[in-house]
Amino acid sequence: MPIFFQHQINETTRLGIWKIEETEEFFKGTVPQHRNVTHPHKRLQHLAGRFLLQFLFPGFPYELIKIADTRKPFLPDEQYHFSISHCGDFAAAIVSKNRRVGIDIEIPTQKIAGIMYKFLSAKEHEAFQLIQPDINRISLATLLWSAKESVFKWHGNGGVDFRREIQLGKQHEANEIIECFFSKNDTELTIHYRQFEHLVLAWVIS
Predict the structure, then answer these.
(1) What is the pLDDT of residue 71?
(2) Beta strands in 112-176 (DSSP E)
(3) How many domains does the chain contain in total?
(4) Given a cut of 80, is residue 34 above it in pLDDT?
(5) Which residues contact 104 (CB under 8 A, 6 or more apart)?
(6) Is the four-CA dihedral 34, 37, 56, 204 of positive or negative sign?
């Protein structure tokens, strides 16, 4: 069973990362496909992400999932709050019975480091010491992008200015959290994260 990482956050909230080693047929026996995904690997990611929902909470009602105009999947009766992310051969999901959630998974790349100025403010560049010549920009930039992306997914309504409205504060490395202020609705958030070899995970619950 290729569960790469699993975390019981509390009695009502769980998350996990699935390493995709199966074929489409494995997932299609369980998971309905809710949208037409033509690219084979993206279709596999799509199926694995949904499979993970029921792995975390057996009985999760796949068949009731709807897609909002913002492309966010949701359950109309909010029996569960959930968020899905995927990259490469990994899918991640977080599911909660009573709390709003957002999750993001990323593979560190130079491409993300190259566009830091688009999603990080000058204050954030300074706070995270990204101007230092010896800093591992690829790893850190990917973590900060993933952190902001998890907030975006938690918000779920689109229309977010990453640079201006998702303001990252102090990083507490010992606890693997980053403080955040989401100015779009004046909310203070705590972003949790894990850094694996060649993989970054970030999530938000509130």
Answers:
(1) 82
(2) 166-172
(3) 2
(4) no
(5) 85, 92, 146, 147, 149, 150, 153, 201, 202, 203
(6) negative
Domain span at 129: 105-205
Q: At which of 49, 76, 99 does a domain end?
A: 99
Q: CA separation (Å) from 74 to 50, 82, 100?
A: 12, 7, 11
pTM for this entry: 0.93
Q: How far apart are CA 31 and CA 173, in angstroms?
A: 37
> Residue 30 sits in a domain of what CATH number?
3.90.470.20
Give dist(CA 53, CA 135) in Å, integer: 37
**24 neighbors 57 (Cβ within 8 angstroms):** no
Domain limit, last residue, from 99, 121, 153: 99
The pLDDT, as a whole number, for residue 47 is 92
- Using alpha carbons only, give the angle 168, 171, 172 rounded to the nearest 5 degrees: 150
Indicate if 40 and 130 belong to the same structural domain: no
Residue 69, phi then psi, degrees to nearest 5: -60, -25
